[in-house]
């Protein structure tokens, strides 16, 4: 049933004076509560009932609790949308006090404030019964909305709840709407007794576009720069759960807040990945046959880390025939969405979605490396052209592809990352060009002998995404060790003063210094590089407790030499 038709039916219900029960049924999170509250807000002047009460069954442990809550939440429908909750409660308890006073004049004075419920509950079971009977008596001709039916307490059966609904309609002349989640697995009693209680049932099934627009109105903090892209992907996945859509916007906003300066390609990949991962994480339970689980996606990523093939990933689930079929369906769906399982950005986002928050520092580190590769690719036009030639046709042009890669890798030997260069080597070996691959390895090492850091397989600046080719990795390690020279501590800190990565051997060398030696070293620094060198030492100390303790001790002793030095050291947050 369309949204407009559902709203028409709700309006007819709201205008009616006749006691009746209306059920609005729909999938979890599609906005049943929103469409109801929106409708009554728009039409409150047309409601003939003098009292309205909205009640969530969540946490209510008995039928008496439900009746009490209906009473306490009662308000004049004409003032819906105004901040008058406290006044409504006081008004309800004053009315209760008048009724109760006829039964027990001794404690009427306790009923003048909003805390009367607590007073009465403390006076004993007999008083509680009087309270419940009087509160129930005041529920006549009330418009009531019951929400969160599927979250009812186990101590309240749906049979008992529907019995109360029937009582309120038949005996108290109330008009009642029930908001029902059709995805709930605990509706047997409802199905059994609904014909005796429910007068009309509406099926609320808004489009994904409508749900997205509603979520946009409800999540006002959203960055709308990429709204159309976000909307297009969400609609393609048919995401209608408004809560999930709001979570998607929240995660995207958080991620984009720290990635504003990166290439558009990176930001678009982040948006696409967050939507797909949230869809898997939050929506899988609603359609397990068609929506992949996050567990499947994690295994898919792990599989890609070892072998870049979807054929293997498709069979990673349990060895049941039905499960295999489901895995293939999931894999095909992810393929159709261009889901980049192999990308490190996806792994960071996957872990973040699973934890419920974006790990900003890790995301920035990955994006820095990704941006570096994009910058290098934009410079290394020959290598980029080789990949375009490889991917661009099904022609039998292996020799042309090999020549293009040899040319491109020769051009990029002093600019590409180890990861990028390694990918070219792997392709040459796939095309049975092992000799040419070995030749390219020798070329890379000879070109970078004077730039020792470009031979370092542990450098996150040049090898953030890892090396696929083992021959290349072994050759780099050998060349790096061969060129090793014992640097002084100051030379190490000077070299690392403008970098974000380091060798473990550097840490060990600095950790061998005492606090007094570090103090003398720091005091020897001068000029604008002083701060950078000390920050480099603190960076190294982050992975070694002894070095951190000695570094802090040395700096604190320097700070104790004078108030001026103490002020100078404040920037290090010791």
Characterise the protein shown here:
- It is elongated and about 95 Å long.
- Helix content is 60%, strand content 5%.
- The longest helix has 20 residues, at 264-283.
- The chain contains 28 helices and five strands.
- Helix 23 (489-496) crosses helix 26.
- Strands 2-3-4-1-5 form a five-stranded parallel beta sheet, with helices on both faces.
- The chain has four domains: 3-205, P-loop containing nucleotide triphosphate hydrolases (Rossmann fold, 3-Layer(aba) Sandwich); 209-362, no CATH class; 380-480, no CATH class; 489-572, no CATH class.
- It has helices at 3-15, 32-43, 63-72, 85-101, 116-121, 125-137, 158-170, 188-197, 208-218, 227-236, 242-257, 264-283, 294-306, 310-313, 321-336, 344-355, 360-379, 381-391, 398-412, 418-430, 434-447, 470-482, 489-496, 504-511, 515-524, 529-541, 545-559, 563-568, and strands at residues 21-26, 51-56, 142-147, 175-181, 200-204.
- Helix 7 links the parallel strand 3 (142-147) and strand 4.
- By secondary structure, it is mainly alpha-helical.
Give a brief description:
It holds the Pfam family KAP_NTPase. The protein has 28 helices and 5 strands. The chain has 574 residues and is mostly helical.
Essential attributes:
28 helices, mainly alpha, single chain, 5 strands, P-loop_NTPase, Rossmann fold, 4 domains, 574 residues, 5-stranded parallel sheet
pLDDT averaged residue by residue: 83
Q: What's the main sheet like?
A: 5 strands, parallel
Return Rg in Å.
34 Å
- Helix and strand composition category: mainly alpha
Strand tally is 5
CATH fold category name of the largest domain: Rossmann fold
Q: Which word captures the global form?
A: elongated
End-to-end separation: 64 Å
Number of helices: 28
The top level CATH class name of the largest domain: Alpha Beta
The parts where pLDDT drops under 50 for at least 5 residues are 102-127, 305-320
CATH architecture of the largest domain: 3-Layer(aba) Sandwich
Helix content: 55-70%
Strand content: 5-15%
User: What is the count of structural domains?
Assistant: 4
Q: Give the quaternary arrangement of the chains.
A: single chain
Strands of the widest sheet, in order across it, are: 2-3-4-1-5
The CATH homology group name of the largest domain = P-loop containing nucleotide triphosphate hydrolases
